[in-house]
Amino acid sequence: MLDMKEYENIELKSKIFIEDAAYHRLLSIIADNKNKLETGGIIIGHYDADCQNAVITECTKPPEDSKADRFRFYRGIKGLKSLLRQHWKEQNEYYLGEWHLHPGASPNPSAADIAQMKKIAQDKNFNCKEPILMVLGEVAKSQVINLSIFKNDHIYYYVEK
């Protein structure tokens, strides 16, 4: 079994796993963010056989057509459709949600983050009724992850085990 970070929500009796390779790629993307702007991408992975636990296998870099400034990030779409097709075809993996960085700030989702995830959950084009949101922030000069899932118009938070 691969090494993974493990997060749990006791109320839902579910877990979200982040494969080490995906986590280290995420840290690499953040390290390359020299201007300290918000940045982000999509989360790709799969659910277990019971559809109870998610496994994140990739966190993409921001698409070329993304727009970022110090306090906002608009994720573009360039190249994502073909990337998602490739993941589905080769590994039966698909879009699970979004990730982004709050540079030098709390990893708590903003009101705009929450509104966007609710829209994604309702948008049939995403085909993702329960999107995952991963927000990275900085606390005491360390990267901290806030992981949540949007289910039935409610936000459920996961804690690292």
According to CATH, the homologous superfamily is Cytidine Deaminase, domain 2
Spans where pLDDT lies below 50 across 5 or more residues: none
Order of helices and strands: EEHEEEEHEHEEE
Level-1 CATH class name: Alpha Beta
Instruction: State the strand order across the main sheet.
Output: 1-2-4-3-7-8-9-10
Give me the number of helical elements: 3
Q: Whole-number average pLDDT?
A: 93
Coarse shape = globular
Distance between the termini: 17 Å
Explain how this protein is built:
The protein is of the alpha+beta class and 161 residues long. The chain has a single domain (4-160), classed as 3-Layer(aba) Sandwich (Cytidine Deaminase, domain 2). Helices cover 22% and strands 39% of the residues. It has three helices and ten strands; from the N terminus they run E-E-H-E-E-E-E-H-E-H-E-E-E. The protein has helices at 20-31, 80-91, 111-122, and strands at residues 4-9, 14-19, 40-47, 54-59, 67-68, 73-74, 94-101, 132-139, 142-151, 154-160. Strands 1-2-4-3-7-8-9-10 form an eight-stranded mixed β-barrel. The protein has a two-stranded antiparallel sheet with strand order 5-6. The radius of gyration is 15 Å and the shape is globular. The mean pLDDT is 93.
